[in-house]
Specification:
Two copies of one chain form a homodimer.
Chain A lengths: L8 H4 L10 E7 L5 E7 L1 H10 L3 E4 L4 E4 L8 E8 L6 E7 L20
Parallel strand pairs in A: 1-6
Antiparallel strand pairs in A: 1-2, 3-4, 5-6
Main location (chains A, B): cytoplasm
Enzyme class (chains A, B): hydrolase
Subunit structure (chains A, B): Homodimer.
């Protein structure tokens, strides 16, 4: 048998992607419940996330795959991945090493409280 | 003075929207940390969410504003709204009355565990 080198059909068939072929991924710290960030995955990024245990995204600004923590030293160790009821959003539960945000904050939402 | 009838400029200027004028909103139960769903907001939906205290979205399938719970009887009472570091994602912390998912599940991710 060939090794599985791409996303299994039974998962791929359930995905509803943007016109760019992406699905938003909500990233949550598995134990505290903190929402860390939102990122984007295509089929390959999702497959790599599921099979390597390291959260991997598609960078829309750099147009390349992005293994979270590969340059920052703050990887996300994947605990589980869920797809929502209509197949257009992923929830990635991780153990975030260090901080999630490029600003140095724990989450990308730490400093963004909006007033009415 | 005129009452504020649209999103304040200091918030609107920080939003990075999709070509359709939308920003994804991660919706989280404020006390348990459960991620309930992902929905989409335009400036008006965000303004209504901030000023009415009821989570209000833009429905991409129905092309209309959608006050969560108005038909289902399961509203989301808004506790706080945060914008992420790069202005392209909202985090809406709510008190979800009843269930969040149209399937009757508590969250839209309850039944979506993916295997590698």
């Amino acid at each position: 048998m060939e090794p599985v080198t791409s996303l299994p059909t039974e998962i791929a068939d359930r995905l509803k992607r943007t016109p760019d072929g992406l699905v938003p991924a909500v990233v949550q710290q598995h134990d505290t419940g903190e929402v860390l960030m939102l990122a984007w995955m295509d089929d390959t990024a999702l497959h790599r996330t599921l099979t390597t245990g390291r959260a991997t995204y598609w960078s829309r600004s750099r147009n390349e795959y992005w293994v979270k923590g590969e340059t920052s030293g703050n990887p996300q160790l994947v605990k589980e991945v869920r797809l929502d009821c209509d197949g257009d959003t992923l929830l990635v539960k991780v153990d975030q090493v260090g901080v999630a945000c490029h600003t140095g904050a724990r989450t990308c939402f730490d400093h963004g409280l909006l007033d009415a």
